[in-house]
Amino acid sequence: MKTNPTIYIADDDEDDIAFLRDSLTERNAMVTCVTFHNGLVLLSYLLANSEVIPDLITLDINMPVKNGILTLHELKQNP
Length: 79
What we know:
Structural class: alpha/beta
Strand content: 15-25%
Number of strands: 3
Radius of gyration: 13 Å
């Protein structure tokens, strides 16, 4: 059974999050968007919930604590 798509959004700007979430849900009302305010929070969540794999992860390049580039690098290092 196919589940609804899940998209993780890592961004520190609430307006950008709202814009992306609205755009995605306009295309597919069944999509679930989960938001994180920096890469460190996203990576911690992924490690703690390794059985759940999202369909898509979006990363803001300029975030405090851990930016999108560093987060992507760590994601690629962990199968």
